[in-house]
Specification:
This protein has 131 residues and is an alpha+beta fold. The protein has one domain. The chain has 2 helices and 9 strands, in the order βαβββββαβββ. Strands 1, 3, 4, 6, 7, 8 and 9 form a 7-stranded mixed sheet that branches.
């Protein structure tokens, strides 16, 4: 299984309260199972399926991470992707590749958390399986 990284600036979305969305070209070779709700330990995530059209719509969700954004963002994205796959098992098939859409910006939450190291990171996840 391969991880494909995409990046998006979330700054204007964060300022407006609008959810960031990454539009990925759809080529027709794969069926995409895209996470459409944030991963929470309390609930199973929701998914959408894209198997036709021109674009795959990947919503970006905010998560709190204790990791340094530069060194930990990719690893945190992989951790979320594996957790999502385990929680939902959306396809019944092993994905060909996982698309991780990572927000370019990360926000330091240390001041809001009374000195605790914390960052707000932005991640979207889509699994692709062959048709």
């Amino acid at each position: 299984m391969e991880f494909v990284n995409k990046f998006i600036s979330v700054e204007r979305h964060v300022g407006s309260g609008e959810q960031p969305i990454y539009l990925m070209d759809y080529g027709g070779k794969y069926v995409y199972h895209t996470l459409t709700s944030p991963i929470s330990s309390a609930e199973s995530p929701e998914w959408s399926i894209t198997d036709s059209g021109d674009k795959v719509r990947v919503p970006i969700f905010a998560y709190k991470s204790g990791k340094e954004p530069d060194s930990g963002l990719f690893g945190y994205g992989i951790q979320l992707g594996i957790e999502a796959l385990e929680l939902a098992k959306p396809t019944g098939h092993f994905p060909h590749h996982v698309v991780l859409v990572l927000g370019i910006e990360c926000h330091d939450l240390a001041e809001a958390e009374e000195g605790e190291e914390a960052h707000r990171v932005y991640v979207g996840i889509s699994f692709a399986r062959e048709k």
